[in-house]
Design brief:
By secondary structure, the protein is mainly beta. It contains 4 helices and 12 strands.
């Protein structure tokens, strides 16, 4: 099976007919609505689940899976993270959209070609994503992941170009 990307967590049951309350990243409702299959991980076991219905209620997704028909069956999966295949998400990406997992480990260069560091992670601050870049002295610097500062992301060549404005990332000699 291809690698998996988490899309939510089974938090609890909803009602008595086996619906689950699913926590998910806000703003991803449209992505969730387009899904038909998920994988739940429980004790290192992958459990395939088929979505028969999905609706949103009070900030959660209420999901009915064909394979779950009672509160007891939901309770067995409570706390499980649910995933989709990475290739499904990759096929849905628009231009200038990237998976966080694809950005980690990319080398970072300035517009003159000087290597600045490596992307160690991506975080959100509400307004925009932030690239966490570790430089040679092992310090980390956050760079807003916006086109004005990050004009080029080259996944195949494993590099990112950053417009290194004054004070963003110190150049080490």
């Amino acid at each position: 099976m291809s690698s998996l990307i988490s899309v939510g967590k089974i938090l609890n049951f909803h009602g008595i007919k086996g619906e689950v309350k699913l926590g998910y990243t806000k703003g991803k409702e449209e992505q969730l609505q387009g899904l038909t299959h998920l994988v739940a991980k429980k004790d290192d076991e992958n459990i395939g689940l088929t979505i028969s219905s999905l609706r949103f209620h009070k900030g959660y997704a209420i999901v009915k899976f064909e394979e779950i028909n009672s509160i007891n069956e939901v309770m067995e999966l409570k706390g499980s993270i649910v995933y989709i295949a990475k290739d499904i998400v990759s096929n849905e990406l628009q231009e200038d959209e990237y998976l966080t997992s694809d950005l980690k480990g990319l080398e970072v260069f300035d517009t003159e070609g000087t290597k600045l560091g490596v992307v160690t992670g991506v975080s959100e601050n509400g307004a925009t994503d932030l690239l966490n870049i570790k430089i040679r002295d092992n310090s980390s610097h956050l760079v807003p992941f916006v086109k004005e500062l990050v004009p080029c992301v080259d996944i195949p060549n494993k590099k990112i170009i950053v417009k290194n404005i004054d004070g963003l990332i110190p150049k080490l000699s």
